Amino acid sequence: MSRWMRVALVLGDLICLHLGYLVAFLLRFRGSLPPENWSAYLELAPWLTLAALLFLYVYSLTLPRRQRWAEIFSSLICVVALLFLSGLSLSYIMQTYAFPRSVFFLAAVLQLVFLASWRRALWTWILRRHGPLALLIVGPWDEASKRREQLEKHRPLLFQVRGIVTDTVPPDRREDSSISLATYDELPVVLERLQPEGVLFCSSVPLEERSRLMAKAVAQGTSVFLIPRLEDLLLAGASMEPLNGIPAFRILGLQEMAVGGWKRLLDFALALVLAVPALPIILLAALAVKLDSPGAPAFYVQERVGRGGRVFRLIKLRTMVPEAEKDTGPVLATRDDPRLTRVGRFLRATRIDELPQLWNVLKGDMSFVGPRPERPFFVSQLEREIPGYYLRHCLPPGITGLAQVEGEYSTPPEDKLRYDLLYARSASLLTDLRIILRTLSVMMLRDKAS
């Protein structure tokens, strides 16, 4: 999408938001705009516009992405809700009491209607005009076919895989007419014939082969999407520091990048503030758990692996039947886990079961943002299977993280590790705040990350 189209997109959003205020005023004052009240709005309008731009940016709505409508709509709800709270706060700080609170409430409803209608029409138009993003996948057969399934099974409206370029085409798939298959050496011919909008390179393509094939794709004017290897992720955020004329990148240690005094200060202050409204919710939820499962504890304490490999005790509201792993041993939870209780299903869907972890944050065991901590049993297993998995323990574990806002419940552990390391290379106060706010929209989507 061109720069002017992006500008038009944001202007459309701002028009919808301010139209909401205008119509709310007209409804509140029965078709008139009293000068005193309207001047209060004009005084606040520039600040409301800045707040709107900030929230649109936080939820990645200023730059169109390939998203489902549900993801866009949940982000719009968060933008309107945050703008509503910002408006009330600004009105109080600037003492513009002539801006009625009822107008803020009414405007929020209208803004959501206007924004959703505008964005839905735009989303539908883009899909009809451009269709799904046509991709060519390059990589060994096992990973390439897995990535194809990830893209087409869950996002058929958004992505279309036109072909797979692999090292060796399996004999039983050579007659497959549903997709174009080719070997690495045939990439230029396939690009010319299929004209994909992008080429997705799998992480397991040998490094020299990947460099050669990427150069060919770029030379033919095709966009390249790269699933990063460990060394690619470590290079993220690196700075060029020539050594006596030798071109070299300096890669900082993960502790230098992702852990600072600001992080602990933010965690402690935010946990302290949230503990007040969270406490009655936790107590009511604990009572519901006890009533649903008499005789069983309301809280569940479990060992998890934190920063530096240190084991700590994580506390949650119990969502499963008592002794859920008595016969099976340690088992990862699934989306529709049959071990969930009736109350537990609701608590997990709303993430209320995670609220007691505010105590872990206050104690310093956890942060608000970071890799989700796993149990020692699964950590030892994943460290054997996934190269570099231990690197996530250089960071404080978090209640939420980049893997949770970008991934899905079914995202494989190796992809979650990629998100965790990418976060480590870009961690900052603003990044943490953005991830925390984006988590609010993720909570509305059942199939997003746990």
TrEMBL record:
Keywords: Membrane, Transferase, Transmembrane, Transmembrane helix. The keyword Lyase does not apply. GO terms for cellular component: membrane. It holds the Pfam family Bac_transf. The chain crosses the membrane at residues 7-27, 39-60, 72-93, 99-118, 265-289. Residues 263-444 form the Bacterial sugar transferase domain. It is a multi-pass membrane protein. GO terms for molecular function: phosphotransferase activity, for other substituted phosphate groups. InterPro entries: Bact_transf, EPS_sugar_tfrase. Its main location: membrane. The keyword Ligase does not apply. Belongs to the bacterial sugar transferase family. PANTHER family: COLANIC BIOSYNTHESIS UDP-GLUCOSE LIPID CARRIER TRANSFERASE (PTHR30576), UNDECAPRENYL-PHOSPHATE N-ACETYLGALACTOSAMINYL 1-PHOSPHATE TRANSFERASE-RELATED (PTHR30576:SF0). This is Exopolysaccharide biosynthesis polyprenyl glycosylphosphotransferase. It comes from Ammonifex degensii (strain DSM 10501 / KC4). The lineage of its organism: Bacteria, Bacillati, Bacillota, Clostridia, Thermoanaerobacterales.
